[in-house]
Amino acid sequence: MSHLSFQIAQLLEKMCSNDKDFRFMATNDLMSELQKDSIKLDDDSERKVVRMLMKLLEDKNGEVQNLAVKCLGPLVSKVKDSQVEVIVETLCSNMSSSKEQLRDISSIGLKTVIAELPLSASGLAAAVCKKITGRLSETIAKKEDVAIQLEAIEIMSDLLCRFGTLLVPYHGMIMESLLPQLSSARMAVIKRTITAISYLVLTCNAQLYEKLIQYLIDGLTRQQDIYRCKSYVLCLGSICRQAGHRLGEHIEKVLPLVFDNIKKNDDDLTEYCLQTLESFIYRCSKEITPHVHQIIKTCLEYIMYDPNYNYDVEDEEGTDDQMETDLDAQESDDGYSDDDDVSWKVRRAATKCLESIIASRNELLPEIYRNVAPVLVSRFKEREESVKSDIFHAFIVLLKQTQPVIVMTSDTDTMEHESVVLSLLQQQVPGIVNSTQHLLKEKSVKNRHSALSLLSELVHTLPGVLAPHLQILMPGILYSLNEKTAASQMKCDTLIFIQTLIKNHSSEVIQPYVDQLIPPAVNAVNENFYKVISEGLLVLQLLVKALRPFDVPSHFDFSPFVRPIYSVTLARLKTTDIDQEVKEKAISCMGQVLASFGDVLQGELVICCPILLDRLKNEITRLATVRALYKVASSPLRIRVEALWVESMPVLATFLRKNQRNLKLSTLSLLNAIVQNYSSALQSSMLDQAVKEVPALLTESDLTAAQHALLLLTAVTKTNPGVIQTYAQTLLNETLNLAKSPLLQGEALKSLLSFLQAVAESGISGLSSEPLINHLQDLIEKGPLHKDAYHSLAEAVGALAVSKGADSFKIIDRFLKKASSKNTYDSQLVFSLLSVGSIGKRLDLSGVDSLKKVLIESFNSQSEDVRSAGSYALGSIAVGNLNEFLPFILQETESKAKRQYLLLCSLKEVISSHATSTNGAIALAPYIPEIWRRLFIHCESPLKGTRKIVAECLGKLTMMEPNKLLPELKAARQNESPLMRQTIITAVKFTISDQPQPIDSLLRQCIGDFLSTLDDPDLNVRMVALILFLSTAHQKPSLIRDLLDSLLPHIYRETNVRKELIREVEMGPFKHTVDDGLDMRKYAFECMYTMLDNCLDKLDIYEFLNHVESGLKDHYDIKMLTYLMLSRLTLLAPNTVLQRLEQLVEPLRSTLSQRVKANAVKQEYEKQDDLKRSALRAVSALQSVPDAEKNPQLNELMATIKSNSELMALYESIKKDTSAPTDQALMDLN
């Protein structure tokens, strides 16, 4: 006998002991053994353990029984299928026992077994289902004992939930046993039956589903019994919540019956009907659309349904008669009291139903604001607290739905829909304020919290909206802060609201109320609870900004408030044994106090500055202190704290070598502010320590840190160049290394150019313009660089050549000689040409005789890089002098056919440089007609690259003179040449930018004409039309929102695989399939993805999902894109995704089960791995959809993933990755 068998035998022996403690301990030890993954029982031990546990279920001691049941869970996965069947058989037999305790414990046992049965073991699960189902159905149908029946129905629910697909052969029998229970006299039986039916409909076939729905429809049609109507309505609602996608087709039959039952004057039935309507809205959003207005009307009627209470009794005429009538009614109803009044449930259900419409029907916002919002505001007087809370929540949801609309209105051409919504919301504000001002003073904390939440959301939605109403609201706002017995959480909520109020209103609005706000805020800082202190300090910090704003002129007398704020902040700043959050907020608040009132508090600086210096040296508080000191250093008051900076410099220098990135960036900003504003107080030795640490930060690995470091070096160079000279060689080496980085661009490049110019103008020995240019040229000669690096280095040459003291023309001659020499390497030639162009942009080079000749000769080079550099240089020098060089470019374009592409690139450089400013457009205006004429000649060029350059030029010229040139593009769109149409449509793409432009109003009128080419017979024209649509949807969606109804069918059509575009190409002995429609499909799916972000409310999500489903089965690239779309849809339209879950899961399963061929190359393995990762991300997103865990297909897919170690490892890493950004964000926030 093995050791394990011996051990099990000993435990079984103890389980037979007469001592209940022995039995308990032995059972507990058995459970511990069963929970070990390594345990393996032999056949004999299995039989004995199963027999003993079945026996212990009848033990007289309840604790032993409970332990025995718990053992069944791990035991199921450790024994053979035959023993599991024995367990199930025994438990089923015990269910019909006359002993109540045994029945209960066996019921729990069955639930445990069902919950622990592995989904992957379909054979065992099927056998268990076969054994249980028949008996459960019989037990349910007999109705002998309600307790047994309830347990049987609950177990059946569990069974259907986990193994619904395995029970398909028994669905008819189950349905027959469950339907009669809807007429049970016990509501508990009805509710559990409804739960079981709702799980059944997830997997039953269409015929059975039709039968169920017809049964409910017939019951509601002929049934006069209110009680049974409740059952049927509840069942419909539950079915809709579980399987709304299947109920959609029956909405037209079901909905009239629900409306009929609402009117039957029974509060419970009305509540159930409204809850069912809510389910319809969420789960059958497409089918319910025609009836939404009727639902709104019904909800508005019942949200005011309160037959036993008159809210306006004091304001109505005939008050006495009304009260008498009410009293008579009460007397006629013997024993009636408020406890019997359930009308609040009806109002709550109506509110929830309205909220569902608000949350899901963004297109109805104007109507909701007209008809629903006033009613919701009027119901803020609701007497039932829970209903009132729901009403507030519904209005908050309405405001949140409005916020995306507010964002859209930043476009200059505000659409009518958005402007109507805003004006309607503005109209509701006085009513909201009047209703909430009383609630803010109520004793009910819940009501006050609801009112504050609503007002906060209102301010977020429309900043500044409460300015006219603050006088009315202020007493209520301060009530919770001044109330002695107020809870800490209520005080925190109020303080947070005050912060929101100050942030979203101008200083002029807040200043009249500071005398009321500061005392309670000071009291909050003196509280004991750390959260209240923290929020109080934040309020004071914001009030300090409002008292003395620097961004707008202000004559407000802030002096009476300076001392109280300073004193309370200093007290908290001095305290060391407080929460970390309070320490940081106190430091931040003191920084703002000194930045705003430092001139008034000059005498107090000797007290608070040493404390700040001490906090700066503390590792825990140093980051908060650096940020606070930055406020002081950058203050326009130039606070006299030179001594603080002198002592801080050594400490700040050490921060530059810390690993904490936020600390380094904040320190660099602080040092820059100190150097710029307090340079006279800083000695060279102080700056030495900081500058010494800077070279290590000049790396391409963190360009943001490099940019801040360069800004600091520039400031030091201008104020104290001697410090730079000390570290000149080290700084120069690191700066040059950064300059040759291909990643250098944007603000980082500008910072580097500024630093080099400052160094060249500083007079530092050996670092004037020419030596620095020599160093740059040495980089080219030393080795090959990335081609992007040449542009950065050339920009540096241009900046140095025009710096003060530089001999610009001598430098130009030098580079021209290099460019014209036949012995020059291509890399040096490229650099020389780019440098000439960079200087020419900044300086008029019309006086340089050989310039044109050298540049034109570069066009004949064998190197494409040299030709491109020459083209760029010619365009750049034309920017410096249009009159001299632009006519030359146009003339060359006309006469030199072989150089047309390069000359067009030069022309593009000229147009691009002038299109960015008003002055540039004015300077170019006289040449536009001639440029336009020359460009149109090349619109039909057979070369794709040439057409693209021409299109970009046409687009940018059109933006300069839209009234004149846009109609010409529109006319050219109808040209018979497909090449011309391609160029014109591409040109329109370049007229669209993410910033408001004068051309936008004109584009709105004609964009539909250009996009009509989505139906063009030419494939390439349709492709550029798709690209135009994509660009518009991404950068300026307001232009196409109203056209989507006509454009979407064309977009969707291009997502389909077209067999006529698929061809076979022979490559030697092999045949390769080429899909000419693949790029079209990619662009179409990209259009769809972009519309999810910008045009969601204009999409029919059901139709959209149809094409997403087809994309899930398409090419690798399209699959990757549709996985992203699916993940987005789980957040944007979770209910719709839930309805289509079955269709979406199958393609995902197919992808995850794919295997790469044995002879595949490494790239194919990597592609397959990426595809599976993306599919698993989509699965993870689907898992996050509410109620998705109830879907059998998704559960089966998850079981498949868990059973595959490779997929499970990938899935776990993805789950970890998705949670990581949140953690990082929290770290950054802290």
UniProtKB/TrEMBL annotation:
Report the residue ranges that make up the TATA-binding protein interacting (TIP20) domain in this protein. Answer: 1039-1202
* The keyword Phosphoprotein belongs to this UniProt entry's keyword annotation: no
Q: Could you tell me the superkingdom of the organism this chain comes from?
A: Eukaryota
Q: Which InterPro entries match?
A: ARM-like, ARM-type_fold, CAND1/CAND2, HEAT_GCN1, TATA-bd_TIP120
**What SUPFAM superfamilies does this protein's entry cite?**
ARM repeat
Query: Which keywords annotate this record?
Result: Repeat, Ubl conjugation pathway
Q: Where is the Stalled ribosome sensor GCN1-like HEAT repeats region domain?
A: 7-104
| Any one GO BP annotation for this protein | SCF complex assembly
- PANTHER family this protein is in? TIP120
Family recorded in the similarity comment? Belongs to the CAND family.
Q: What is this protein called?
A: TATA-binding protein interacting (TIP20) domain-containing protein
Species name: Artemia franciscana
Q: What is the lineage of its organism?
A: Eukaryota, Metazoa, Ecdysozoa, Arthropoda, Crustacea
